[in-house]
Design goal:
Oligomer: single chain
Number of domains: 2
Strand order of the largest sheet: 1-4-3-2-5-6
Strand content: 25-35%
Largest sheet: 6 strands, parallel
Helix content: 25-40%
CATH architecture of the largest domain: 3-Layer(aba) Sandwich
Distance between the termini: 27 Å
Order of helices and strands: EEHEHHEHHEHEHHEHEEEEEH
CATH topology of the largest domain: Rossmann fold
Shape: elongated
CATH class of the largest domain: Alpha Beta
Number of strands: 12
């Protein structure tokens, strides 16, 4: 999959694409239907299959003081989109100048002049342009006038008739329901980042950890989780079972900063500076304060045993 950073930089063989447009935060099952619809049309018409997303997320631009909410960084999003088979991903920088484009200008400058789009696909609730003045009706009518096709994908619901949405994923994670989040996503929720030096407390306890600061990621419910962790090894990703704590480390009075500390089973190596992907499989318990190091060590051993049991049953 080729990745482009601006709609004006596309080579000629990337133009004329069938493009799915949206923020696609999390790439949940509803997003996958939108993206795959573009794929069906692209393959049927012999056109490039493209996805256009925005970075940073528009809400981060317009609500800079809001609490962290991202379900996927651009790196994670690119992983998931590539796995669907997409040919090209356009990661459009989203700033106030771009946000100021009118709906008409977005269509004419970005979709037509920039992408040369032959067909556009979006979710039923997609809005775009200055003050979100454009919607699916806008794309349908302008497409007819200018000469590109448009498909609006209706709501995608589960077996209970509940819509797949990023908000639903966030609600599950805030409640510690990683299984529920995975149901909406179609895979385990994943946090990722570069491993940073900690205070070596885990090593002193006999359970060395890899530490990640969560940045713009949504904070799942604080607590201990059974996880699968992917270590970036350049040419691929090495997956290991483990356990992690997402929390403020109250036993050591570490303040309000939320850190993910992952202990990987049967691993002995240097992880500092490497990229780590952490799939949250199941929440084991809430975070709590302990009376001393011995109590922590005992509980961590229990957590590890329970996590091993859970992960042994995963496919």
């Amino acid at each position: 999959m080729r990745i482009f950073r601006h709609y004006t930089d596309l080579p000629e063989d990337a133009r004329g694409c069938v493009v799915a447009i949206g923020n696609f935060d999390g790439i949940h099952k509803g997003h996958q239907v939108v993206i795959n619809e573009a794929g069906f049309i692209a393959r049927a018409t012999g056109k490039p299959w493209a996805v256009m997303s925005f970075e940073p997320h528009p809400d981060a631009l317009f609500k800079p003081d809001c609490e962290p909410f991202r379900l996927s960084t651009m790196r994670t999003k690119a992983h998931m989109i590539e796995q669907l088979g997409v040919d090209e991903l356009l990661v459009q920088h989203f700033d106030f100048a771009f946000a100021g484009l009118t709906a008409q200008a977005f269509v004419e400058e970005v979709l037509v002049k920039g992408l040369g789009a032959s067909h556009v696909v979006a979710g039923y609730d997609f809005q775009f342009g200055q003050k979100r003045q454009g919607n699916c009706d806008t794309l349908l009518h302008l497409g007819r006038d200018i000469g590109f096709g448009f498909t609006a994908v209706p709501k995608v619901v589960d077996e209970d008739g509940i819509v797949y949405s990023s908000t639903r994923v966030r609600d599950c994670l805030k409640a510690g329901d990683t299984r529920g989040a995975a149901h909406v996503l179609g895979r385990p929720f994943e946090l990722e980042g570069r491993i940073e030096h900690g205070d070596q407390r885990g090593r002193q306890l006999g359970f060395p950890t890899a530490n990640l600061h969560l940045g713009d990621f949504l904070r799942p419910a604080l607590g201990v989780y059974a996880v699968r962790a992917g270590v970036d090894e350049g040419s691929g990703t090495r997956w290991l079972n483990g356990v992690c704590n997402v929390g403020k480390r109250p036993t050591f009075d570490k303040g309000d900063d939320v850190v993910l500390e992952a202990h990987l089973f049967d691993f002995d190596g240097d992880l500092y500076g490497k990229h780590l992907r952490v799939q949250m499989i199941e929440r084991l318990r809430e975070e709590r304060k302990f009376d001393g190091l011995d109590a922590i060590k005992t509980q961590i051993a229990i957590d590890c045993e329970k996590a091993r049991e859970i992960l042994s049953k995963e496919g």
